[in-house]
Amino acid sequence: METKILDIFFDLDHTLWDFEKNSALAFETVLEKHKIGVNVQDFVTRYVPINTKYWKLYQNDEVTQEQLRYGRLKDAFTELEFEIDDAMIHLLAEEYIHYLPQFNHLYDGTIELLEYLKPKYRLHIITNGFHQIQNNKLVNSNIVHYFETITNSENAGVKKPHPQIFNYALDLAKCSKETSIMIGDNLEADIEGALNVGLDVIFFNEHNLETHPNIKQVNHLLALKKYL
């Protein structure tokens, strides 16, 4: 007989909160505000894979928060062969962080899913993002009230997939890994990280990546209803 799930842990960015859409809008705002002469779409197209690379380095403690914020912009401008001084890059990096939580597009089905789950389970967040920014995203997108606890890498002291962040979240939620499940979009950080501490998982496989056939997965949030 399967163990009854009582607690559900969600990743935030790329799982509930539409990071790519909101990020593009934040860049459109700051680039136009400072009259930076690049095509916003061209910039974002280059920025997205660079940002992914830097987050991977940050996740593995190979760059600092400051290096992440500066480097991803510097490299995107370099790829565009656009000359810009370091002072402006630092300013753009700060303003991007300021504007990012002000755009709050959620993935299709997010509110319907949370409304469906809330009466049946205790819901939680585990995110590698920075405390204030992630909290602003939850508040501004009007979903913070669905969650009992919010664990981020700043208060846990480590980032996913480190076991300690999952154990920290379980302790904070006062729940058992045997009756909990993790849902996220990142195979290494969310899925492998959770599996390594004994949590059940569901992979939000938005882009239909090839993965292990035994891992439960969905490519639309509302498809989670068949598991929960």
TrEMBL record:
Keyword list, A-Z: Hydrolase
InterPro entries per record: HAD-like_sf (IPR036412), HAD-SF_hydro_IA (IPR006439), HAD-SF_hydro_IA_YjjG/PynA (IPR011951), HAD_2 (IPR041492), HAD_sf (IPR023214), PGP-like_dom2 (IPR023198), Pyrimidine_5'-ntase_YjjG (IPR052550)
Cited Pfam families: HAD_2 (PF13419)
Gene3D superfamilies for the chain: HAD superfamily/HAD-like, Putative phosphatase, domain 2
CDD domains, A to Z: HAD_Neu5Ac-Pase_like (cd04305)
Superkingdom in the source lineage: Bacteria
Any one Gene Ontology molecular-function term assigned to this protein's record: 5'-nucleotidase activity
Protein name as it appears in the record: Putative hydrolase of the HAD superfamily
Origin species: Flavobacterium endophyticum
